[in-house]
């Protein structure tokens, strides 16, 4: 079953109105609701609740969706790789600045 990505996406590779460069090809499953969103701003604007980061010790959770091949990755796989380990799509390295919003 293909995951649903919520929020204002702009293409089939999970880019959104906030982040839409060639490297912005992931969606994040939020710990608070278990739903995928392209970014923290999409969640903030469309969810009916506050977000909360994945707690420490959750690195084996499937919580990242590669928008190119639609493979779900664990938090550990995502944080440790500059690209998708399945299709080699490059991830935006600047996203690391937002990791505290998503992961403890």
Automatic annotation (TrEMBL):
Domain of life the protein comes from: Bacteria
Keyword Zinc tagged: yes
Pfam families linked: zf-CHY (PF05495)
Keywords recorded for this protein, A-Z: Metal-binding, Zinc, Zinc-finger
Protein's UniProt keywords contain Metal-binding: yes
Protein name according to UniProt: CHY-type Zn-finger protein
Organism per entry: Brachybacterium sacelli
Domain CHY-type, first and last residues per copy: 9-89
């Amino acid at each position: 079953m293909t995951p649903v990505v919520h929020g204002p996406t702009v293409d089939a590779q999970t880019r959104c109105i906030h982040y839409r460069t060639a490297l912005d090809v992931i969606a994040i499953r939020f710990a608070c609701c278990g739903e995928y969103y392209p970014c923290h701003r999409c969640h903030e604007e469309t969810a009916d609740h506050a977000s909360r980061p994945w707690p420490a010790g959750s690195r084996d959770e499937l919580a990242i969706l590669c928008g190119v091949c639609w493979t779900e990755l664990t938090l550990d796989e995502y944080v440790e790789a500059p690209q998708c380990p399945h299709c080699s799509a490059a991830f935006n390295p600047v996203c690391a600045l937002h990791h505290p919003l998503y992961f403890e």
